[in-house]
């Protein structure tokens, strides 16, 4: 019985690893060449599996692309979601909350974040010309924003966020600010410096607190 269970666990891990590698290969293709470049034969070959194995994990090409884009957006928002959740749960004061939340804000001075945001922006641009991609991006972006929405509602329940502010608007602002900060890359040396940027963001966040906390 133990041997049989061990065999099942090994097969489950192998299946999970294969699925992850298929998603990774697809995501790399999308980010490098766009959604139109995703071909089942090429992805299966890149991961060294048969087309039958690929279709065992994913119903069709659309399902594969959806999984890859979902993983991409999950990665882009995972740290922010986890950090905001932790701040809501553990902050004892406005100062605590600001200290916890500051490192999670969109950082236009971090090259890794800049590259991630450009890749997402490029997908959005592609989506304007590709109905399938537009539908996928819409679904995934709504899903991501709904996670932020739940966090904002939790913040209101904890008394961190003012109750007279629409939480969906705050959730949308987080997503918009993250993507919009790419303008720093375009402005280059004409962009505001880090001190001015962080000062403004902390001021804006402070305005979201209830009056007695400000």
Could you characterize what this model shows?
The chain is elongated, with a radius of gyration of 21 Å. About 3% of the residues have low confidence. Helix content is 75%, strand content 0%. It starts with a helix and ends in an 8-residue tail after the last helix. Helix 1 crosses helix 2, helix 4 runs parallel beside helix 7 and helix 7 crosses helix 8. The longest helix is centred in the first third of the chain and has 32 residues. The protein folds into 2 domains: 58 residues, Orthogonal Bundle (Arc Repressor Mutant, subunit A); 153 residues, Tetracycline Repressor, domain 2, CATH 1.10.357.10. It has 10 helices and no strands. It is mainly alpha-helical.
Tell me the strand percentage band: under 5%
Q: Average pLDDT value?
A: 81
What is the string of SSEs from the N terminus onward? Answer: HHHHHHHHHH
Number of domains: 2
* Terminus-to-terminus distance: 63 Å
What name goes with the CATH superfamily of the largest domain? Tetracycline Repressor, domain 2
Helix content, binned percent: over 70%
Number of helices: 10
Q: What does the radius of gyration come to?
A: 21 Å
* Gross morphology: elongated
Structural class by secondary-structure content: mainly alpha
Main sheet makeup:
none
Q: Indicate the CATH class of the largest domain.
A: Mainly Alpha
Jot down its keywords.
mainly alpha; Arc Repressor Mutant, subunit A; elongated; single chain; 10 helices
């Amino acid at each position: 019985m133990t041997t049989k269970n061990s065999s099942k666990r090994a097969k489950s891990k192998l299946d999970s690893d294969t699925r992850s590698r298929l998603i990774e290969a697809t995501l790399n293709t999308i980010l490098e060449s766009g959604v139109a470049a995703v071909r089942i034969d090429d992805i299966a070959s890149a991961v060294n599996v048969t087309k039958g194995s690929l279709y065992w994990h994913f119903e069709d090409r659309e399902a594969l692309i959806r999984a890859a884009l979902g993983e991409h957006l999950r990665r882009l928002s995972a740290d922010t979601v986890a950090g905001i959740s932790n701040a809501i749960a553990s902050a004892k004061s406005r100062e605590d909350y600001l200290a916890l939340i500051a490192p999670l804000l969109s950082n236009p001075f971090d090259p890794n974040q800049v590259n991630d945001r450009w890749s997402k922006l490029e997908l959005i641009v592609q989506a304007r010309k590709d109905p399938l991609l537009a539908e996928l991006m819409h679904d995934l972006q709504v899903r991501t924003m709904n996670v932020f929405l739940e966090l904002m509602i939790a913040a209101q329940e904890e008394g961190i966020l003012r109750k007279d502010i629409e939480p969906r608007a705050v959730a949308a602002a987080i997503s918009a600010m993250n993507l919009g900060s790419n303008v720093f890359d375009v402005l280059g040396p004409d962009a505001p410096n880090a001190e001015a940027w962080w000062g403004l963001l902390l001021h804006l966040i402070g305005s979201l607190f209830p009056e007695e906390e400000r």
